[in-house]
Amino acid sequence: MSKPIIVPVLAQFMTATAGRNMTAPAYAAVVVGVLTMVLLTVNPAYETAHHWVQGVLWACLTFFVFEWLIRIRYAAMSHRTLSYLMSFRGLVDTACAFAVPLALAFGAQLRTAWLLAVLWLVKVVPGIPGLRQLRRVLVLESRPLLSVLLIFLLILFLGSVAVHFLERDVQPQTFGNVPSALWWAVVTLTTTGYGDVVPVTPLGRLVAALVMISGLGVFGLWTGILATGFAAETRRDNFLRTWESVSKVPFFASLGPSAIADVTHMLRTMDLPARTMIIRKGQQGDCMYFIASGEVEVDLPGKKVTLADGAFFGEMALLGNNRRGANVITTKVSRLLVLDLVDFRLLMARHPDLAQTIDAEARRRELENK
Amino acid sequence: MSKPIIVPVLAQFMTATAGRNMTAPAYAAVVVGVLTMVLLTVNPAYETAHHWVQGVLWACLTFFVFEWLIRIRYAAMSHRTLSYLMSFRGLVDTACAFAVPLALAFGAQLRTAWLLAVLWLVKVVPGIPGLRQLRRVLVLESRPLLSVLLIFLLILFLGSVAVHFLERDVQPQTFGNVPSALWWAVVTLTTTGYGDVVPVTPLGRLVAALVMISGLGVFGLWTGILATGFAAETRRDNFLRTWESVSKVPFFASLGPSAIADVTHMLRTMDLPARTMIIRKGQQGDCMYFIASGEVEVDLPGKKVTLADGAFFGEMALLGNNRRGANVITTKVSRLLVLDLVDFRLLMARHPDLAQTIDAEARRRELENK
Amino acid sequence: MSKPIIVPVLAQFMTATAGRNMTAPAYAAVVVGVLTMVLLTVNPAYETAHHWVQGVLWACLTFFVFEWLIRIRYAAMSHRTLSYLMSFRGLVDTACAFAVPLALAFGAQLRTAWLLAVLWLVKVVPGIPGLRQLRRVLVLESRPLLSVLLIFLLILFLGSVAVHFLERDVQPQTFGNVPSALWWAVVTLTTTGYGDVVPVTPLGRLVAALVMISGLGVFGLWTGILATGFAAETRRDNFLRTWESVSKVPFFASLGPSAIADVTHMLRTMDLPARTMIIRKGQQGDCMYFIASGEVEVDLPGKKVTLADGAFFGEMALLGNNRRGANVITTKVSRLLVLDLVDFRLLMARHPDLAQTIDAEARRRELENK
Amino acid sequence: MSKPIIVPVLAQFMTATAGRNMTAPAYAAVVVGVLTMVLLTVNPAYETAHHWVQGVLWACLTFFVFEWLIRIRYAAMSHRTLSYLMSFRGLVDTACAFAVPLALAFGAQLRTAWLLAVLWLVKVVPGIPGLRQLRRVLVLESRPLLSVLLIFLLILFLGSVAVHFLERDVQPQTFGNVPSALWWAVVTLTTTGYGDVVPVTPLGRLVAALVMISGLGVFGLWTGILATGFAAETRRDNFLRTWESVSKVPFFASLGPSAIADVTHMLRTMDLPARTMIIRKGQQGDCMYFIASGEVEVDLPGKKVTLADGAFFGEMALLGNNRRGANVITTKVSRLLVLDLVDFRLLMARHPDLAQTIDAEARRRELENK
Predict the structure, then answer these.
(1) Is C310 found in the same domain as C195?
(2) How many domains does chain A have?
(3) Do D289 and D345 lie in a common domain?
(4) Which residues 182-221 of C have a C-beta within 8 angstroms of B?
(5) Residue in C192, C195, C227 nearest the CB of A227
(6) Which chains have 3+ CB pairs within 8 A of C?
(7) Global pTM?
(8) Alpha-carbon distance C229 to B230, whole Å?
(9) Domain range spanning residue B217?
(10) Is the reported ipTM for this assembly greater than 0.95?
(11) pLDDT in tens, D130-171
């Protein structure tokens, strides 16, 4: 009886896996596997339950090998085996599946080999939200960041040679050679300050104080650059995501390209799962919504109204009535465009025709609901 | 004789309490209670004055139970007992009133049970100014912040497994298992650097240096994201608060919506208690004020002029006369709109009619005062 | 013979002192005095040269008492003694002059009393450039900053009570009471991390890790708020300083108020001492200069041309000729308005008449110099 | 046989060296030299291979002396010896060539003298990308930065004297004099926190807590100022670099100055080496490219098209076709101007004629390729 249920589930899982997305079981395997690996290194835990611990680890490994096999097969079906194997995802999959067995084959101890299970975490990387955005910031700001990194290295070397020279006679153990002094310098310049290696001579401390203050400066520059880059990228990202959606709302179609650019600058995109409450009756409202894709249900007294792509709702809040008049819930995965009160007023001022359309529609609905 | 005074005070306190705001006695009870709890844990203090210490704590607790009872009663009167108990405020109130007694009932030691008095601090949370603003920033920027957090965790795990592998033979005590290494990694990646656990092998230190520098990077991204989000939120918040007030000033009523949006962008809202000096005679002035609500008193030579909602003052400073000519004091709680010299000039350029009105009014007043 | 020289110098010094500005000797006395006080606490230095060290300190103190007397006298002459004594400056002056003698009078040891000489540093505060700007940022952003501070305190108390509860049995010495735990929490939450007090139990470390990560978050918010406030304040400050100067340049007088606001947004104010080289012949040029006040000398081949208030120079760099053609040196203290290449081009586009004036003047000069 | 090859290579190297740029061999010598110097201080490494280590160091030194000689000679040829010697580059070159020999001549130990080889790193400074930009930020923001530095010093001195006073009796070893307390204060205020010197009295810890929290504040201000300055500088730098390139693209020549300023604000400059793939077939495209200088090759099916200065490509991505249709590779060192999808749409709205030109050219190419 269970087979007819398992088969389609497995088929669906295989297709999802082949689509190279992380499936829910894959996420679970990563989390469970890595935590179990951590447990494996704790002696009391290992000794009392090493069968269980190892069982879980082998199960996770089997899962990843299985995943790798499915992906290889699907890739082979479309004659892209090599391109898959050479892609970031392919390399990670291969490493995750074979690192531990290979280590064992090369004679590593069992508990040492399992440490490589930490690589499974890398599988999560492509699924991190906003990673692409962060990478773009790093690429666009790479020149000043590199510049700060070089200044960091310069201070590191100059500081550590100076302190080595000043402290080597007093503390030959810790400042006796430049690599040790470099260790001190890194610990100091990043303001970590373990305190395992500390200058004690007055001049050594003076140099150390300069290194610390330089550390603050380097850090400030670093943060300033990233903040600047991030602000620019956020603006750009928001615009792109929104432009695409705006073009799908018939409401804005009548506007000229200049007005559309204006509107796009003002709207914020919001992706929601199904059955999410967007507006709660009686709440304070300060924005209205356009449906780029999906469907919502407005829970009016006595009846339920369904709104689909291109419709808008919540406009009452912007036309003087602050309290929300009805619950609104998504019925499908939906992408909404949010127009804040702030921007609605600017928009009204610049494009009175748009404001009139919203006004007219609001009036029409009010009459209808009476 | 004291009864007739106490009764209305108590009634007023009960109404204020029922309104679910933190009353002044409640703030006092939180501060005194928590500080006394801290004292309770200090042996000499406890031994010399434990009757006093416990007395204060029981008094505070009684206060919070009393507060809880009042709120329950008022909630019951409007048939909202359950919704109160399930709200954030209700849950906190209940926890604050019953955590310590419950702990005592379950057999905890007296000094241990009183530690739970630290929960009283949570009562202050809803009263923190600007908390809503901070929460909006965190919500709007949640995707990139989550992304940075995941990168943080990734570096944490990869770094700690690597250092565990490199250091476990040299320092089995501190790097002998991955949880210990994770502790080291958190301490290092946040640049806290206690120095209780420090790598000593060259390779271990190299990995540690990379972890530290990554720490700076993660921190920089984190700050950059929050700074970006905060800048956007500040702009929005200011606009919203000001728009509301601008609409109450008849002076701006004649402007079209586009001009009002312009003006709103320029004004800053300022809430002042009664009897606050706004302008001191002889000071350098660089802004003018509109009264959104409240009342001020202008202390002219020989007479006092009272200005109310919709009036403006301090415009002389913007029309060439830099020194303030009179003291201006609020007589009620007032909300003022501040127009900086900078923005006044931009406004004059864009809306000459508005500038003329201000100019005419200023001239009229000057004549009147001569 | 020396008297005739000393008397006017002394008179000048007294007038400068009475003007309540820090005079150069006062700065010297602060720096020398504080460094000598530091020296006083070092035993070997004190023992070998305590006559010298004390002599210098008494000399500095005498200077500050003398300064205080002069100011009191001048204040008395204009019947403002009390207002001087109650002002920030007056309080600091009084404290600097009498703190050490009073401490000695109350029986403090000599070396202890002199420690109060550190107060002399506070005299420098009102002279810090840009302090007013920093204060404005702190005032304007005070609500969110306070909010972050309260969150900081909340985490501090919750974290320290939790760690006290978890660690008190294992480390009664360091976590035995809440004040000790609070010390640990401050050290951790600011990411200082001395390592004198460190949790050792697994749960204690987990709470500590959360406190550290919260520390990063609090810090990021803090920085974000300050960065936002600072950006706004810089824009405002620049505009104000520039507007004042622009109005003094006849060149811009013909522009309407909207254009002046535009120009003001683009110009940067620069204050230069006399005999400063502004342009070096042969350098790459990317800006032009307007003289708001002062005088400059253009070192042309064969002759020297002097330009005064309202004139402009360096415009060649913006009209295609990148190399500077002559040295330009200030002859007086001057305030220049700098127009960057970037902004010049925007200005040309928006106000073609202005561009033509610059162009015509440039051509005229070129012909003249041929 | 080798001579005919070596001679022109040497000549080319000498010319490159005389041009005062860092040549690739110079970079190599710096990196190898400094790393070898680090090795020299490690006892085991030095003892087993000191001939090798010293050989490498002498070789590097010889190289730098040789470089210095070439530059002196070329400078002498153009009668600029003195100006070369007095320039930053000349001083660094001289120091790098003669510091170690001079130290040896003055009787320093061999291993001590070689420590000066760390100065070689300074040679890299003028080659750091974006250094000029960082310097401009520091110069423009110097007033507020100085202000923060003075506040830093103020807290440093006040804090250390206070803690010295409070802790000197309990810990005479570490807080017995103010310089030691200053060391503690620097370590604390920069949030480094070695933990070698820690206050233990309750009052001392309270002052320390205030110093730490001030540390966060100072740091936040510092970062905020740098972030603000950096944002402004980035905008300016980008505009300048782009303006220069835009003027070389005939395509934009027809636009008026206002439109050119608009376009310049939107374009991003990108410098690419030869043989770099710009567009990969099948990728998602979100920008188009203009060639400011250089040459690219478009790999169309069946033929290769070469585009040179002034041409544009990748416009399909902006006209609805998201997938890139062909590989595009640079054939020379090229400077490209990138127009993002975001900005293209704004540009279309504001300058419809420009959009039409792009549209027409795109249509023409499409027909041609069919």
Answers:
(1) no
(2) 3
(3) yes
(4) 182, 188, 191-195, 198, 202, 205, 208-209, 212-213, 215-217, 219-221
(5) C227
(6) A, B, D
(7) 0.81
(8) 10
(9) 140-233
(10) no
(11) 777 778 788 878 878 888 888 899 999 999 999 999 999 999
